[in-house]
Amino acid sequence: MTLVSFPPEVLKLIASELSDIDLCNFCLVCRIFRSVVQDDQVVWRAKLLSIYDEPSSKVPGKPYDWRRVYQLRQQIIPRGVLRTEFGTGNLSDAEVLDVIWDVLHDARGYKSETKEITGKNFNILNALKRPDHTLGLLEGRGNNCALAAAVGVLMTPLLQLPEEKDLHDLHTMVYSTPAVSFDGYPQFQVIWALAKYFIYHIHKDSGSDMLYQKRLMQPNEYPSWWEGKLSDYVGPRHKIPSKWYGAYAYAQRTIRPQLRDLSDGPLVDVTLSMTSHNEFQGSGSDTQTFTITHGKISSTKPDPTLRYNGVWKHIEFRKYYHSHQWTYEGVMLPGNNMILGHWRPPGTLNSPDNFRGNNGPFVLWAVPEGSTIAGRDDRLGFPR
């Protein structure tokens, strides 16, 4: 019996196990082999699911083009998006962004005891950490800046280190523009500017010593991917992790005149708990102890240029010290494991008239239960 005489079902199983190059050669052998691969979606579905998580964009009862999705991803993901390749070849910038966006949204994470996230898509994305890959440098590319910024924000756990010179271009947004517009829409370019700003100051390889306590963090306490899938976080009932680290900053204008970033140094160590379906409270410490009150989570308005809008959340709360208080407002990213926004003096929340005077950026990110900075030796961590 020759291979050509095998039943089509067996040939499809064989084809599904071949590498991409071998599959191309398989199709060139004869018309029978080519039709086995090209006539339906069985081989392409098997190949995609052997590498990637189940796609979220499938619509029940409607055909799904497994072949096109697989081939698009294989053009982009395995070799990364190199700066020299971006926008070249047969794919437009918009197509590249759409593919990366779908891979991010489809990612399904499973949390281990060390807070490492495993899953097919996450393993592929983690492989793109090499410095010659530039998935974190997509701002302003293509026709959809919102999508480029949203992709960049979701890639934040890769913690690619921005260059110090790039920070000067971020300051206008970081210090003066809200992460959620006053009419309720997420400002993706601002959110990404905030993410890059704090990546620079928190990254273990950064020369910044603004947040000296970053040296006390364990490897599993840095920002991480979300657990589960993003669709788990869509809906009117909101969830929030209980344990967070964070940081905030403010700026002084020097004689030059340039903005000089400052911080009180310690990381924020905070515990939060939901009190209703969309309200929370908490307590924590940085330079002093504080309490969190008036915490509220709500859905942002959907950006018409993006899919999967329901996972971006508007978040606001009050931070009370013994003698003073501050208003915090921003956006909780998809996956509910990072919050980016601004602090400012107390007043009416979400009011353009109140976004003036003393203010600055802040970040909170979820860390494993039981984590705490308290009691760690920071004698070597004082600012130089």
UniProtKB/TrEMBL annotation:
InterPro entries found in the cross-reference section: F-box-like_dom_sf (IPR036047), F-box_dom (IPR001810)
UniProt cross-references to CDD domains, sorted A to Z: F-box_SF
Record domain F-box: where: 1-47
Pfam families membership: F-box-like (PF12937)
Classification via SMART domains: FBOX
Protein name: (Perigord truffle) hypothetical protein
